[in-house]
Amino acid sequence: MLNDTDFRRHFPLICHEQIVYLDSAATAQKPQQVIDAITEFYSSGNANVHRAAHQLSAKATAQFELARTTVTKFIHAHSSKEIIFTKGTTEAINLIAQSYGRTNLKAGDQIVLALSEHHANIVPWQLLAEQTGAEIKVIGLTDTAEIDLDHAKSLITDQVKIVAIAHASNVTGVINPIKEIIALAKQVNAITVIDGAQAIAHLEVNVTELDCDFYAFSGHKLYGPTGIGVLYGKQQLLEAMPPWQGGGEMIKRVSFSGTTFNQLPFKFEPGTPNISGVIGLAKAIDFINSFDRAALNRHETQLMELARTQLLAIDGLRIIGDVKNKLSIISFVIDDEHPSDIATLLDQQNIALRAGHHCAMPFMEHLNIAGTVRASFAPYNTVADVDKFIAAVTKASHFF
After folding, report:
1. Once rounded to an integer, what is the mean pLDDT over residues 195-218?
2. Is the entire prediction scored with pTM above 0.85?
């Protein structure tokens, strides 16, 4: 495992606090480098980008576009034109649905999702289906809460135009077989949309190797700021798609006789962007790249395994999605106890985690449970965190 201070010391909120933070799947803590980058922008370089002639604007624009290059390299995209800054994964998926989807889908076409998807990868497609007359098909799960590939093969037919799948489940951490699903989609000329919100902080993502058509993620789960995200799209698809929102920056020329639109990526970035968020995201990527990512992953996986072994010894406790191929997330239930009650007792012992349906209500309905308690581990967690967590869960189980 990592030395307990190697990674954790960079995070001011938790490095000296007594709280055990096990909610990184909801949002990760921010390293001082990211906080400083945002503060420095507002205190010494605040200006709008791409527009003004003065030196402050030139500096901000250079930082902004350098950040785009940083993201391009981080996910191994071919070109910075393929990187669109959004508010987050949710906005990115809505952009695809409303721009690509409304342009290309019609009645009788099909959209394929998995039963385990986050609401952000369900609701935008439901809206699109209502608008176009398309139909949604849902891939089922195995008894271990993994995507049923045989069922996927039967669903992905010539009628399917879009396949939208999470890289990993936000509920269980199970890593989905997206390479196989992308290959199935290609056989029928369907485009693939990968929700990378959970995976991006844990897995090395290479969109070129994956050969997905779109990949979306949020900055705040990658140790970056909230309110910033990324949509990767293949350049030829983005070129053909109409703008989703209109306004400044996304235009070349506006007149009342007609408007012409800007080139990529600006066609999809109307208005003043989240400049500080973009700069903070780039700094977060620089930060994570300064470590051995494989070592970080091993550390958090070892912590998860340590916790898992001890949790399974607690009477009545059951882990959902208890498989090998997963991120460092443990989602569990205790017989006859509501997850929110358990989480409240844990909070009283300074254990911060999430309980509920995790924005995956169809998944919970399938499991026939109200929700789960979810502990998500990051490289800044320690063995001491695990010990405190297990002691708190044990105490809570005895209380009930």
Report:
1. 98
2. yes
